[in-house]
């Protein structure tokens, strides 16, 4: 087993009118390089919360997330997010005064990616996802929701992060485009030895991943 990314007794709860509401309970799991993972479960079960904890966007109430042998909180959430992981949000979180390829070049600059021609690389990745050069140079606000989703995915790919965390990455895409995204994720894992972890409601998507996990009564279990 080559477990680069691990959850150790991860728990999360919040207070609601004086009552404690447990979302995640003692989650323990090791993610291996070169594999794709789907996380499924009903709305409100804690999928997005788990993704936020794994992404260093929130701190757990108990336990910790380990990346490359180190607690990510000790590593520093900002450095961890900048260099080690790539996040794909449902809301895209693109910079709206930049065009598509500029968003990707900006992400590479922030991650200190050494690439002689970042624009060319950005356009190449976008092209693989069906965003052609003319569209890549358009104001990001003039792209459709599905196109913006693909730009967000391209930005994550361009960072060269070892772990990609995605929240419903095909939610705004048609079937054919969704399949293209899935195949890109599979290639990233199998060929580049990355870890791809996807939260999804799409059972067809989940079945194509190497491992399917479910949040059940706050626990993370293999299906």
Instruction: Tell how many strands the DSSP assignment holds.
Output: 10
* CATH C-level category: Alpha Beta
Q: What low-confidence regions span 5 or more consecutive residues with pLDDT below 50?
A: none
Q: How many helices does DSSP assign?
A: 9
Q: Measured on Cα atoms, how large is the radius of gyration?
A: 17 Å
CATH topology (level 3) name: Rossmann fold
**Name given to the CATH architecture:** 3-Layer(aba) Sandwich
Q: Going across the major beta sheet, what is the strand order?
A: 6-7-8-3-9-10
* Relative strand content: 25-35%
Distance between the termini: 19 Å
Q: State the share of residues found in helices, binned by percent.
A: 25-40%
Oligomeric state of shown chains:
single chain
CATH superfamily membership, which one?
A: P-loop containing nucleotide triphosphate hydrolases
Q: Taking all residues together, what is the mean pLDDT? A: 93
Structural classification: alpha/beta
Reconstruct the topology from this structure.
Layout: E1 3-16, E2 19-32, E3 36-40, H1 47-54, E4 62-67, E5 70-71, H2 72-75, H3 77-84, E6 85-88, H4 100-110, H5 118-128, H6 133-136, H7 145-158, E7 163-167, H8 175-192, E8 195-199, H9 203-208, E9 211-216, E10 219-222
Parallel strand pairs: 3-8, 3-9, 6-7, 7-8
Antiparallel strand pairs: 1-2, 1-4, 4-5, 9-10
């Amino acid at each position: 087993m080559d477990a680069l990314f691990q959850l150790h007794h991860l728990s999360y709860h919040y207070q609601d009118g004086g009552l404690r509401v447990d979302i995640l309970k003692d989650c323990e799991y090791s993610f291996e390089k070169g594999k794709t993972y789907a996380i499924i479960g009903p709305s409100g079960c804690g999928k997005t919360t788990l993704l936020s904890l794994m992404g260093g966007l929130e701190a757990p109430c108990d336990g910790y997330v380990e990346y490359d042998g180190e607690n990510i909180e000790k590593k520093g959430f900002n450095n961890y997010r900048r260099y080690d992981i790539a996040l794909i949000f449902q809301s895209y979180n693109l910079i709206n005064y930049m065009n598509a390829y500029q968003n990707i070049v900006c992400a590479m600059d922030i991650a200190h990616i050494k690439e002689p021609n970042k624009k060319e690389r950005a356009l190449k990745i976008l092209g693989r996802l069906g965003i052609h050069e003319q569209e890549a140079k358009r104001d990001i606000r003039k792209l459709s929701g599905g196109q913006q989703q693909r730009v967000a995915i391209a930005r994550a790919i361009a960072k060269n992060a070892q772990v990609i965390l995605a929240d419903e990455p095909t939610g705004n895409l048609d079937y054919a485009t969704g399949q293209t995204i899935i195949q890109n994720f599979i290639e990233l894992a199998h060929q580049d030895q990355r870890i791809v972890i996807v939260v999804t409601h799409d059972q067809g998507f989940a079945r194509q991943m190497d491992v399917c996990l479910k949040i059940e009564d706050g626990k993370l279990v293999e299906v």
